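ok so i was messing around last nite and threw this chain in just to see what happens. nothing serious, just curious
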Amino acid sequence: MTKIAAHAIALVIVVLIAGQTMAEAVVNITGQVRARTEISDKGFDSTSKAQQATYLRTRVKADATIDGNTHTVVQFQDSRTLGADGYSGSLSDAENVDIHQAYLQVDHLWENGLAVKAGRFEVNLGSQRVFGGVGWHNVGRSWEGFQTWLDRETFRFDAFWLKKMERENTNGNTDFDIFGAHANIKSLNLDLFGFYEYDAHYGDTVAFDAMWMSPHTALGRANFGLHWKKKCQQFDFDVNAVYQAGKMQQWDEPVADSLASVEHDIAALMFAFEGGYTFDRPCKPRLALGIDYTSGDDDMTDTDHKAYNNLYYTGHKFRGYMDYFLGSGSEGLMDVMLRLKANPTAGWTVKGDFHFFQTATEYADPMDTSGVSTTKDVGMEFDFGVVTSRVAGVKLAAGASLFLPSESFAEMKDPSPGFWSYFQATANF
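result:
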């Protein structure tokens, strides 16, 4: 355990004890231990061998509610790959404990008034297609900043400031900040949001044994979007949409003792739709069809940047469980999907997804030695999973996925399928 984590734990204990004497406090301790074994062979070369690893994540959360209105929350986390740090079976530890969340929250600054939260915390927005805590990941995503909100019977309005990077530059601001607002209209199940990413970092490149800096902002990107979900009898619908606009710099090599940079205009979008139907049968089978589209840049030589950036989303929930497309490629991506889920008996869920992938814009076909041909071909993915809560005290999940790549995407003739599987056990307390 790190000294910082040890001191933080001691501080929490002192605060909780002091809180009991200074104010009426209710302390709630919760936690989770999750172990997941994965077997992966995501390469497309038939000579490659599958890799196996087991990931362990442990979380303990202390939530002290003071006078029924104020919360002090600290959540510790240990994330590790079993045996990877070399400390298993030794007399040393990996000093791997960190703070996943630590914040102060006031539910009402005055009666039925604004709520505020400051510190380190998860940010989950809508279906997590834009902002998400990435719970599947062995670490997860947390932010440091400030959030305030007003919650009423018919709506909730949030405003937030998140500090992505503090560079502590005494010569001027070079930090990366995010400023945003979010409104939830409860009667419509509609989320509307907008946020601005401002990275004031100059950007730097070492050349001629000197550091050259451009006086231009690295990124100024505005994001406007919505998330809407609706259930109508046996039908359900889910829509995500985001438009991105702004400016960004592309850095070139220094020429004539100066850093050449080109300002690009951002104009990109994302649209995702899923419509499902749940049949009136004992096992509640649900069949759904959807599309997830992110724009690509069809001309890399101009100063228009049209490739959508996937931002801070919970990637594993979208675009296939094999996570080939977590990032933001310049060609964009179109994912047409078919989903089936059912509950064959109490405490059991089985599901299967099919994905057909193409890029949104064409890319140079690496299989064409002439360098003339272009293509959108990517491949297909099949995901299968089963979840059960029938074992007392633990939730068990298992799954397997298969990816059939195109030759162009795999960059080889007759590529082998990619394969991935997992088994996971989660216990909450």
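not much to say yet. Residues 204-216, 253-258 have pLDDT under 50 and may be disordered.
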